[in-house]
Amino acid sequence: MSSFNVKAYGAASKEAELVEMQIDRREVKPFDIEIDILYCGVCHSDLHTARNDWGGTRYPSVPGHEIVGRITKVGEDVTKFKVGDLAGVGCLVDSCQECASCKQDLEQYCLNGFTGTYNGEDKYLNQQTFGGYSEKVVVDEKFVLSIPENLDLKAVAPLLCAGITTWSPLKHWNVKEGSKVAVVGLGGLGHMAIKLAKGLGAEVTLFSRSPDKIQDALDLGAHKVVISTYDNEMEAVQGTFDLIIDTVPYDHDINPYVSTLNINGTLVLVGYIGKMEDGLATPTMILGRRTVAGSVIGGIKETQEMLDFCGEHNILPEIEMIKMQDINTAYERMLKSDVRYRFVIDMQSLKD
Fold first, then answer.
1. Which CATH superfamily is domain 162-294 in?
2. Is the full-model pTM beyond 0.85?
3. C-alpha distances in angstroms, 73 versus 84, 85, 105?
4. Sign of CA dihedral 115, 120, 121, 127
5. How does DSSP classify residue 75?
6. CATH class of 3-160+318-351
């Protein structure tokens, strides 16, 4: 399979800082699209993968799965896109297309394992997949997304991970006008959950441990903030919420939140992958037919619906632009939660 070289930023080992390097991209095949990357969002998953926090990282590792750019080449059998179109690539670049999940447009739950935009198995070049911290990417058109022209392009990138991660549960649990939704944690995911839930017409509450987040949450569109360390405030919202989206990225006790669900309510975990040390107290669940669930990103169809919704309602994340050369500093700041609320890399800095 023929390939070409592009500039990228990646890590050579889990201890190494990200540096400039050369990687291979496949030449465009009949159903492929080549995208000149203009902006790439920075996700916590990027940092975890680069540092092998979850195990299984293949090096060199080039992260980035919130990719926005312009199409520079299309394969001869491509029908959905043309050269010059704006395009996006999220967390997925392939799946089996044949299993029960894929046939329901749920490629993120592919029973044979989806191919991640980075650290997946590149079946064409016999190497790991490389992400969006690079000049260009080549992707099958089935996994390419159309970007609404009216949106501010530099802020679109985080919708492709933080946006869809929170949109998917909102849609699956049928949030609509008048639904009562709570969000746990105000970071990259949490701030998108607030904006999208409000856009769907829900009454939105933020749970936070920190009173200094109150004004931010209200500015983002939350109707109310409950400080979860204040017993009186937690008591006041017992049995209230249809859906709680828990975006906290580390182990924490979810039992206090479960009791704030109404009958048939669901708490969905989207932020933490790992073992919970605090046991789940079942009486609250059993006596209220309450559910604790999990959710990850969304399929391509659902991601396109989310982008179109954001285009119609002009919903975008709050971002801070950085140069590619500043990614290591950005990672350190992310570990301290020192970003409001998502870093986006201006990829022109890599090309320069």
1. NAD(P)-binding Rossmann-like Domain (3.40.50.720)
2. yes
3. 9, 10, 26
4. positive
5. -
6. alpha beta
Cα separations in angstroms, 41 against 47, 80, 276, 280, 281: 12, 24, 28, 34, 37
DSSP string for residues in 167-196: HHHHHHTT--TT-EEEEE--SHHHHHHHHH
Q: What single string gives the DSSP state of each residue in 285-325?
A: HHTTT-EEEE-----HHHHHHHHHHHHHHT----EEEEEGG
Residue 75 has φ and ψ, to the nearest 5°, of -70, 165
At residue 206, the 3 state secondary structure works out as strand
Count Cβ neighbours within 10 Å for each residue of 46-55 and write b for 16 or more, e otherwise: bbbbbbbeee
Reduced to 3 states (helix: H, G, I; strand: E, B; else coil), residue 14 is: coil
Instruction: Quick: pLDDT tens for 307-349.
Output: 999 999 999 999 999 999 999 999 999 999 899 999 999 999 9
The domain spans of the chain are 3-160+318-351, 162-294
